[in-house]
């Protein structure tokens, strides 16, 4: 019976099996083993966001598959630097990187880190693990730039637990080497959803906190990703306590398409003069959650803007403002009254 079903019907069926965003990997793998037609429909689903939902044991296989997908010159370069191909690695049956639709960049980094720690920890100089990590990260980012042409969602954090770094500044630089990779703009261009986490809470892991906050240079690099975008619809900024204005100003370049904005634990102290709110004409949802750093000028610029398509507003600031809360309530009540008609 499966042979009579079009591939698109099979894919929709398997997507339904995946559940509400939480993929039942075991069930889908069983489907992939049924026959070739089912396999061709299931594999793209299993690989559309591998660094978001796989368990660690499965992520090791993902890393090995990515290594197998590298071109010969890159494999040779890794080998020269002490990273040999796993003994069980075989030629990939599919172009797995091309199936990726959502890239959890932090998930990618953590997966490489763990693989390096468990696989390369017996090297003579264990402190070289950060070196191996950076080699693999650059190789994988290059691979995605070349083979992943339909990315829809991009999630990135600016910091990560630096258990293997003696210098936290090096950690931040390594976290952003994807921004320096040729072709990164073509990888990001199709993206419609972005989430940036400045991860300011990383200071719990370090003694020297001045080096781990989002720097202006990093904010500008993150902003550069938005400027090259063509049609961003969803943007979420999390844990940003510095240089919010840099990102907000760049976000204005996507005001023609943005439908949903979410700010979580964001400080707007350097955005009080931002007057770009009126340009977000297609905005439907606007949420400020556990935010701060606003004043009367910020409030005036925000409530004075016209959002013709807005249906939901949430305001949760440290600074209480009856005017701001009243403005949000009015918008929400207006939408609810329309829904009841």
From TrEMBL:
Origin: domain of life: Eukaryota
Domain F-box as annotated: residue spans: 4-51
Q: Name one Pfam family in it.
A: F-box-like
What InterPro entries does the database record attribute to this sequence?
Answer: F-box_dom
**Annotated protein name in UniProt:** 11844_t:CDS:1
> Origin organism of this chain?
Acaulospora morrowiae
